[in-house]
Amino acid sequence: MLIVNEAQCQAIAQRLRQQTIRADEYLFVPATREEARREANYWTFVVAICQHTKSLAGTIDGRWCRGWDYLVRATRRVVDEVASAEAMAAINADRLRAILSDDFDPAHSTVDRVEERLRQLHEVAATLLEQYEGEAMNLYHQAGGRIAGPDGIIARLRAIPAFQDPLNKKAQLLVGHLDAAGVWPLDDPENLKVCMDYHAMRVALRTGIVEITDPGLRIALKQKAPVTDEINHRVRQVVSDACDRVIALSGVSVYEFDKWIWHLGRSCCFYDHEPICGPRTCHKMDICTYIKAVDYRCLGKCSLDGACKGSRDDDYRALWETNVYTEYY
Ligand code: SF4
Ligand code: SF4
Questions:
Q1: Whether residue 158 sits in one domain with residue 40
Q2: What digits encode the pLDDT tens for the residues 168-183?
Q3: 152: number of CA atoms within 13 Å, CB side?
Q4: 305: CA distance to ligand 2 center in Å?
Q5: pTM exceeds 0.85 for this model
Q6: CB atoms closer than 10 angstroms to residue 228
Q7: What is the three-class DSSP state of 312?
């Protein structure tokens, strides 16, 4: 159905080696144990509701932002509240809308799937309160600082529905971020994986690091036709394998690669316009997050132009991520 294309992995890894990925702008390194405790809880709650963030957009603290940026910047204004398991256990729809609005007026919020996100927050709070005295830091300590294993962080997070993704997108995002911030230093960082979301899938399929060998799947992905959970899982698994290969060939860390492919997917290779490569030049330099996240002196085209199959071949450029409804990414 799909295979990893070794030659394309090498071509993309070569481009990647020429770029430097900067530190994440939301990486807050705590100075005290109390700050570390707060960060562990804050990110656990925020990551739990990080799916389908495309409706979020507005101006927070004088700066326009969207999606994940909006989610983080808006919730960061009330970090102590969001980091409180007691507060999140009691949060209602009006308060969630108020937090996720420019001016704390729930009527002005653009957030969607509110009941789903409320349930997720309540479920995280319930697990933390029942099993970890309300502290995500206790989950980390009881896991022995290990991601993997039957008693590891991911296995423990799996008690929470928002973290039950078979590819562990949210869990990997959480542990990768908290490890980088020094909040959850990992005993087994080799078990970190790239977060398998729609941006990573779109870029992997268009670059050709993953080749689709099933003509029916190729047509479905080009037409954005809904696919089954089983097919979605297989696509994500092969994309994950290809990302592992590019990481091994390029020498960047999983965390760096994750930031790189994610910013690429929401900048040059975004879902609401044609890819910015080949004959097309950039129209969005003013809002591009890639050139902030990566040391790339952009002259108006994607950094993979020429190496990526999508920049040379319409058949690859026309591919999209899988079309599924999911709470996992
Ligand atoms: S500024 Fe450059 S890196 Fe950013 S979206 Fe445009 S072409 Fe891509
Ligand atoms: S070169 Fe084009 S198709 Fe390939 S990742 Fe960049 S924007 Fe997407």
A1: yes
A2: 999 999 999 999 999 9
A3: 16
A4: 6
A5: yes
A6: 10
A7: coil
